[in-house]
Amino acid sequence: MALHDRVALIGLGLIASSMAHAMRGAGLCREIVGHARSAETRATALEIGLCDRVCETAAEAVEGADLIVLAVPVGAMGAIAAEIAPHLKPGATVTDVGSVKQAVITAVAPHIPEGVHFIPGHPLAGTEHSGPRSGFATLFRNRWWLLTPPEGADPAAVARLRALCEGMGANVEEMDAAHHDLVLAVTSHTPHLIAYTMVGVADHLRRVTQSEIIRYSAAGFRDFTRIAASDPTMWRDVFLTNKEATLDILGRFTEELFALQRAIRLGDGDHLFEYFTRTRAIRRGIIEAGQDTAAPDFGRAAEATNGTGKG
Amino acid sequence: MALHDRVALIGLGLIASSMAHAMRGAGLCREIVGHARSAETRATALEIGLCDRVCETAAEAVEGADLIVLAVPVGAMGAIAAEIAPHLKPGATVTDVGSVKQAVITAVAPHIPEGVHFIPGHPLAGTEHSGPRSGFATLFRNRWWLLTPPEGADPAAVARLRALCEGMGANVEEMDAAHHDLVLAVTSHTPHLIAYTMVGVADHLRRVTQSEIIRYSAAGFRDFTRIAASDPTMWRDVFLTNKEATLDILGRFTEELFALQRAIRLGDGDHLFEYFTRTRAIRRGIIEAGQDTAAPDFGRAAEATNGTGKG
């Protein structure tokens, strides 16, 4: 079932290296060509045999490729697209794995030549690790891979990309790019910013020692450090490029937070109780949807293949 | 190694029922007597054989007990203390498992008669479940149990209580009540409030459907629903009674959040990158301290006995 003959991975971090393992494991292509900007990353990729070939330039890597995957930080997509554009094979498909879709489309689409398909994508999968050694074949298994094909996209190219994602174990959903960015602002981008902030607050505190924070982290804080440990470059670009949706959700968040803060200050127990009761229902919905487990201790002992850390 | 002859559990929720299982499993006392305000909870406790005896009143339950554990919401501690005070056996020890310590001491200490020891405590253990059926013997294993004995507390009584906690598998640490409340405001109370808030924001949103939020929750939001699903009564009381420390940390949190929000609005990528890099170090500290695992996917497949949900 070799759906694409040659796949070029531009950027060799967690997502691309996991794709390499997953595509090879499932026999989804004949050849994997890779490129990374850093010589060290290229050397590592060669050393661990991540790709069949590693190229020094992105232009060289995309030559003759049927599928090109842009797996670089969102802020680097435009420059890469400009660089590879003259070297793209007619009929090839370009996709990306960025956590933001509108900004990527704005940056990349103008460079894509006539006759080449551009189908933006976003796998909702990740860990707090990064780099070419962090990838593993099962990263996408049972995770969502969102595609945001533009109007008039070639159905055959979309179907081929969808089959590749499904071949790596993902569940594929198509949606509008603007809606994607809003949904992710709620489910991922704003939660990450908040987690980063809370971890930063703890770091500043003088009266509570760092060792105490670390020691007693399991009381709730640990879940924040978990989602605040992901790749800084990636997250910087997410917030810079999904600015409007993130600021919108952040505004709602601070409004709500101030209302709760006021309830605490005024001792309004009914407000707090009613609020905390309502949030339980969402949790139940997530368990019923099979996105998590109802086992005690949050099922940490039993849970197998879900994670966070990817925008 | 029966350290206490008769233990009275006042309140039969997650913590008390887990204590019953753990004490019985390790043979830490001869008899467990229980009381809960709700007739339904008492009936359940009888039905599942949680205690040797279940009493209709707290006063009755504490008669002749060597150790009395107040395992009710923080806001109910004062009234319970007043009710049981005349029935406490001379030489007995009263402890509690509340998530806030100063407010419990203010509410309970004045009622404790001369000759009875009062040693406040707080096990940092929990799940998002509550009620008499939610308890299990291993809840406290490798978790912290903080004791805040007042100045001049009887060393023998403290040692006996410490041995009981250790017998249930917990690591015991003693600290000042005010410091406890500040540490917990950072590591638990504020993170919980923030998680509740973020889940509440998602609930309000009209343009993103609830099913989308649930479906794509693994991208970060799921960790928030996890910590926002705990017992509403308990959390209401935590915020009402640890008001000052929580508002202090919340103030710092919103300051930091506004600084990050401003950086996003102004497109200040350096600020964001520097901030996100710093928070990674705390995560590493937690892994090195053995409070979590560095395994990919946050070790969800491998991790065994840690959890959150208790203040």
UniProtKB/TrEMBL annotation, chains A, B:
Record-annotated Prephenate/arogenate dehydrogenase domain positions: 5-294
Top-level EC class as recorded in UniProt: oxidoreductase
Known pathway: Amino-acid biosynthesis; L-tyrosine biosynthesis; (4-hydroxyphenyl)pyruvate from prephenate (NAD(+) route): step 1/1
Top-level taxon of origin: Bacteria
BP-aspect Gene Ontology terms: tyrosine biosynthetic process
Catalytic reactions of this protein: prephenate + NAD(+) = 3-(4-hydroxyphenyl)pyruvate + CO2 + NADH
EC number, UniProt record: 1.3.1.12
Record key words, sorted: Amino-acid biosynthesis, Aromatic amino acid biosynthesis, NAD, Oxidoreductase, Tyrosine biosynthesis
Signal peptide: none
InterPro entries reported for this sequence: 6-PGluconate_DH-like_C_sf (IPR008927), NAD(P)-bd_dom_sf (IPR036291), PDH_C (IPR046825), PDH_N (IPR046826), Preph/Arog_dehydrog (IPR050812), Prephen_DH (IPR003099)
GO MF annotation list: NAD+ binding; prephenate dehydrogenase (NAD+) activity; prephenate dehydrogenase (NADP+) activity
Assigned protein family: Belongs to the prephenate/arogenate dehydrogenase family.
PANTHER family from the UniProt entry: PREPHENATE DEHYDROGENASE, PREPHENATE DEHYDROGENASE [NADP(+)]
Protein name: prephenate dehydrogenase
Originating organism: Cereibacter azotoformans
Top-level taxonomy: Bacteria, Pseudomonadati, Pseudomonadota, Alphaproteobacteria, Rhodobacterales
